[in-house]
Amino acid sequence: MAAVKPYWKGYLKLSLVTCPVALSPATSDTEKIRFHTMNRATGNRVASLYVDSVTGKEVNTEDQVKGYERGEGDYIMLEEEELDAVALESVRTIEIDIFTPRDSIEWIWLEKPHYLVPNDKVGEDAFAVIRDAMRSENVVGISRLVFGQRERAVMLEPRGEGIVLWTLRYGDEVRPEEEYFSNIKAKPEGGLAPLMKQLIKQQTKKWVPITDPIQDRMLELIAEKKKTLKPKAKRRITPAKDNVVDIMSALRDSLEREKRGKAR
């Protein structure tokens, strides 16, 4: 899998130490099979349109606006300029606010990983100093960053020669585990635990990335479909001769004018 171009560039800042950095997603789903919705009768793709839920008429892009529902059928409309005004200055700078022990942030708060790397040779030393200092203290940095017009809390974790930046879930996005686990009262009998441990040891292996069996079956299905379809005839695109003649004529006319101008 080839490295993708960074989709965010900015600065990593700690106190007076600043360095340019680039951010790329650490995971990808572009290799997954994607389907388009088609019109079986025509073989054309079906386009999605925004329509008014009451009138059923299509809504033009310039008439589309964000709305917050404060009651049933009652919305507060917010313009793009108003939404942009509440964005903080974390659009282009990852400024580390605090450090915290790595084991103090549990897995459930981690959302999506990204690779953070220095963006030029000059800033590599500053980047390495911040990275190595966090590693030696076994801490991670906490900061904020704007993703798609939404500000997210982020965690910076040293990893190898770089830093992994995790977006973090906010407090109201995580449900307390006690609501689900508190009613589990079962206590297994003493003789069952040794047998289960033995079974676990027998089936313990080194983990390797797991392939998607559905993806593999889909590829096989598509390959079989391809065998039954006749290839479409390629359209031959012939150059427009009139255009070529016109361009050549225009060039000749330009050269003739230049000659006449010099003669005068």
Automatic annotation (TrEMBL):
Molecular function via GO: double-stranded DNA binding
Residue span, Ku domain: 56-185
UniProt family annotation: Belongs to the prokaryotic Ku family.
Protein role: With LigD forms a non-homologous end joining (NHEJ) DNA repair enzyme, which repairs dsDNA breaks with reduced fidelity. Binds linear dsDNA with 5'- and 3'- overhangs but not closed circular dsDNA nor ssDNA. Recruits and stimulates the ligase activity of LigD.
The name this protein goes by in its record: Non-homologous end joining protein Ku
Subunit structure: Homodimer. Interacts with LigD.
Gene3D superfamilies to which the protein is assigned, alphabetical: 2.40.290.10
Entries under InterPro entries matching the protein: DNA_bd_Ku70/Ku80, Prok_Ku, SPOC-like_C_dom_sf
Taxon lineage: Bacteria, Pseudomonadati, Pseudomonadota, Alphaproteobacteria, Hyphomicrobiales
SUPFAM superfamilies the record matches: SPOC domain-like (SSF100939)
Keywords, ordered alphabetically: DNA damage, DNA recombination, DNA repair, DNA-binding
One of the GO BP terms on file: DNA recombination
